[in-house]
């Protein structure tokens, strides 16, 4: 959106969902994801490891970190393990 060529997987995410704004998620919410259940546990703040991306360097890292602040993602813990495949259901349950 701001000109950074970020692609899925670039910022270390393990699961990417579409159709949810970042501020939709709240700590403690539980979601069905495929046949598993996850619980949102903590907002994931950007860190300087992002400077390892090929389009970021030490000169640009602070600007990039400010760009992705509160948009980086969330940590979640697995409540019920299972399989999640592309196109599977992702739905708030609690």
From TrEMBL:
Pfam families linked to this entry: MOSC
InterPro entries (UniProt xref): Benzoxazolinone_Detox_Enz, MoCF_Sase_C, Pyrv_Knase-like_insert_dom_sf
MOSC domain residues: 1-93
Family annotation (PROSITE patterns): MOSC
GO molecular function, one term: catalytic activity
The protein, known as: MOSC domain-containing protein
Organism: marine metagenome
């Amino acid at each position: 959106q701001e000109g950074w060529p970020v692609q899925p997987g670039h910022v270390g995410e393990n699961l990417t969902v579409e159709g949810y704004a970042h501020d939709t998620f709240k700590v403690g919410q539980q979601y069905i994801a495929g046949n598993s259940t996850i619980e949102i546990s903590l907002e994931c703040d950007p860190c300087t490891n992002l400077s390892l991306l090929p389009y970021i360097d030490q000169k640009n890292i602070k600007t990039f970190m400010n760009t992705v602040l509160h948009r980086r993602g969330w940590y979640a813990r697995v409540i019920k393990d299972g399989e999640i495949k592309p196109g599977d259901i992702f739905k708030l349950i609690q």
